[in-house]
Write a structure and sequence with these properties.
The complex is a heterodimer of chains A (about 375) and B (about 300). Chain A is an all-alpha fold. Chain A has a domain at about 25-265. Chain A contains 15 helices and four strands. The radius of gyration of chain A is 22 Å and the shape is globular. Chain B is mainly α and about 300 residues long. Chain B has a domain at about 20-120 and about 130-225. In chain B, about 75% of the residues lie in helices and about 0% in strands. Chain B has a two-stranded antiparallel sheet with strand order 1-2. In chain B, a hairpin with a 2-residue loop joins strand 1 (about 130-135) and strand 2 (about 135-140). In chain B, about 50% of the residues are buried. The chains are: A mainly alpha (about 375), B mainly alpha (about 300).
């Protein structure tokens, strides 16, 4: 066995335990730890204004949601055009607590970690129910079934007075050990909370993919009949993939509700579902690090396009509605270009860079 | 009782328009196995082109109707050539996402024009007084729309059954390699399928635009609401699209006619098609007329 696996060609595992380790080398671990420390420390040295901190928080929430979507669409191969509805279910779980017991009840302000996990579980339950058609439906028929769920969700929110007919339902400020989290620290505080959630769930996914259950997902994606013949249960796997995606989305939704201190209907529309799918695709379907790259890339692009539209708006006649036009246009263009020229997403660039540095200065 | 028949009539009107809109998706799916999510945008584009030709240039509405069908014919064909030709053989998710991306691009292009945000309506060219038969009234626009729809659907079915190009399209949908081996150009057939779909979309757009007025939101929503229709009918059946279109139209009108405002419900017409779709899919996973694919390991 080679002493330095960065220089090794091929792998030299002799036990399953070796293969299942999280970090293969000490260098691996130290690079990762360094990176993680930077993520935790940078806001202390480069404080951003609330506006940009909100963007960063949004990216992290999108990462949580896209990790779930990547599990169901990337790893299990079940197209879901209703992911924003699951995120919405998480958010509206928090919101319905606020409606019934008041938005500054102790459960909402003090026991918010429990409530976030509970929202995840509610999301998982809905995910399993929506996944039930997957027992019989395949491919496009399933995609449209998830689309139906999205539409039904939108209708329920829009027409039920319990959900304030889609208008904003406010959620109270939370308490930390140091007291109430005020307006100044709000986005700062939630940055850390969401970062911890992302790290935990990221490790969760990484380890899941090394277990039997994670490999079941991939086997069912590649060929569900063959997986059936090998003794897996494709139906159960599909339902459970949807439940997992629902859990991630539910957690993301609850975080969204707390971050914005309110839940409104427009954050969970079909448009958002498509946005999550685009993030998963741009990042790279069926890869874990793709779930990180995608949201960063798409949200960053959004920000830049907004800037550009603002600048262009000063020079163009106001009758030309450039700001609303430019956003969907660039969004669509990015998706189409990625699919046409790099259908494996940004994760593939990462892979290429990694293998290049591994072999440099040799070509192979 | 006349209330009931009124709902039946308006259900059939709405349903036949759904059928025409669904036809485009079925045509594309049948030959190239691509689900086109940008169909609503093409419908809207067709309607706007007609409006532009009629009002801004002054072409008689009948000729601009034909002209917009020809323009979208080439528009859809070039969409296929530029974006989808490269993706033949890629997984379904990529192809679906490309059409979603296309939808956003077309959205952006339409938002640059005033059509994106403002409301327009076609100049009236038919009598205003609705036709009344035994207490059931139907407006002339609706009547003419339905007649044109059925004529077009008939023409398309004839085209598929009898003409050489239609037969080669059916051959490609059956077996691509077999079709290639008898000398059918498969890429050309894909292009033609998109082109005919664009043509039917423009027709649907004009008819919808005449009945509901030109509003981008409403027109592109047809691209989404048409999915329950195609899935219910089975993705690859023209007959299925027609039957399912009328079923969905009736369901929608009955829901909004009888459920709304009764049990504290509202806007059920928008959601009922999806609920019914989910229920039917549980029992017939390939729709009413869809081909049951046999899969082998």
């Amino acid at each position: 066995m080679s002493a330095n696996s960065w220089l090794a060609t091929g792998n030299f595992y002799t036990t399953y335990k070796q293969e299942q380790r999280t970090f293969f080398t000490s260098l691996d671990r130290s690079v990762f730890t360094f990176f993680l420390v930077i993520l935790f420390v940078w806001p202390l040295f480069f404080p951003l204004s609330n506006k940009y901190m909100l963007v960063v928080d949004n990216i992290l929430i999108a990462i949580v949601a896209v990790m779930g979507l990547n599990l169901v669409t990337g790893f299990a191969g079940l197209i879901s055009i209703g992911h924003a509805a699951f995120v919405g279910i998480g958010a509206y779980t928090v919101a319905s607590f606020c409606r019934t017991i008041g938005d500054s009840h102790i459960i909402i302000t003090h026991f918010w970690p429990v409530l976030i996990i509970f929202s995840g579980l509610v999301g998982a339950a809905f995910g399993a129910v929506v996944g039930l058609p997957a027992l019989r439906l395949k491919h496009l028929y399933l995609a449209i079934a998830t689309l139906s769920f999205q539409m039904i969700f939108q209708w329920v929110i829009n027409f039920m007075s319990f959900f304030n007919q889609g208008q904003t339902i406010s959620v109270g400020r939370v308490f930390w050990f140091t007291g109430k989290v005020g307006r100044k620290d709000h986005y700062f505080f939630w940055y850390y909370i969401i970062l911890v959630v992302v790290v935990l769930l990221g490790f969760g996914v990484r380890n899941l993919l090394k277990t039997r259950y994670g490999r079941c997902l991939v086997a069912v994606r590649d060929n569900d009949r063959a997986a059936d013949a090998m003794g897996m249960n494709p139906g159960l796997t599909k339902v459970y993939a949807f439940a997992l995606a629902g859990f991630f989305a539910g957690v993301a939704g609850a975080l969204h509700a707390y971050l914005y201190r309110g839940v409104g209907f427009e954050s969970f529309t079909l448009h958002e579902s498509i946005g999550y799918l685009a993030m998963a695709i741009v990042g790279g379907l069926g890869t874990l690090n793709g779930s990180f790259w995608g949201p960063v890339a798409i949200k960053f692009l959004d920000l830049q396009v907004e800037h550009l539209a603002e600048i262009a708006g000063q020079y163009l006649p106001s009758s030309m509605n450039l700001a609303t036009a430019l956003k969907p246009f660039t969004f669509g263009l990015v998706i189409v270009l990625f699919l046409m020229f790099e259908s494996r997403g940004i994760a593939n660039w990462w892979r290429i860079t990694k293998s290049y540095t591994k072999l440099w200065p040799f070509r192979y | 009782m006349s209330y009931f028949f009124q709902i039946v009539v308006s259900g059939i009107v709405v349903g036949s328009i759904y059928a025409l809109a669904a036809l485009g998706i079925v045509l594309i799916y049948k030959s190239s196995r691509v689900l086109n999510l940008a169909h609503g945008q093409i419908i809207a584009a067709g309607a706007f082109i007609t409006y532009y030709l009629t009002v801004s240039i002054g072409v008689p509405i009948f000729f601009s109707f034909i002209a917009s069908m020809i323009i979208t014919f080439f528009l859809a064909m070039s969409v296929e050539r530029i974006f989808l030709r490269r993706l033949i053989g890629e997984p379904i998710i990529s192809v679906i996402m490309v059409t979603i991306g296309l939808q956003s691009i077309l959205d952006g292009l339409i938002f640059i024009t005033p059509f994106g945000t403002e409301n327009f309506s076609f100049p009236a060219f038919l009598p205003h007084t609705p036709l009344t038969i035994g207490g059931v009234s139907i407006s002339w626009t609706q009547l003419v729309g339905v007649i044109i729809t059925f004529l077009l659907i008939g023409a398309f079915s004839w085209f598929f059954k009898k003409s050489t190009i239609g037969i080669s399209m059916r051959a490609v949908s059956d077996d691509q390699f077999g079709a290639m081996s008898v000398g059918i150009s498969v890429p050309k057939v894909f292009g033609l399928a998109w082109a005919t779909a664009g043509l039917s979309a423009a027709a649907a757009g004009c008819i919808i635009g005449n009945i509901t007025g030109l509003n981008f939101e409403t027109l592109q929503a047809f691209g989404i609401v048409v999915f329950p229709v195609v899935i219910l009918g089975g993705l690859d059946s023209i007959l299925g699209a027609v039957v399912a279109g009328i079923i969905m139209g009736l369901i929608q009108q009955f829901a909004s006619g009888y459920l709304d405002g009764n049990f504290g419900l509202n806007g059920t017409g928008d959601v009922m098609p999806y609920v019914i779709l989910l229920i039917i899919l549980l029992f017939k996973p390939h729709g009413l007329f869809g081909i049951h694919e046999i899969e082998r390991v």
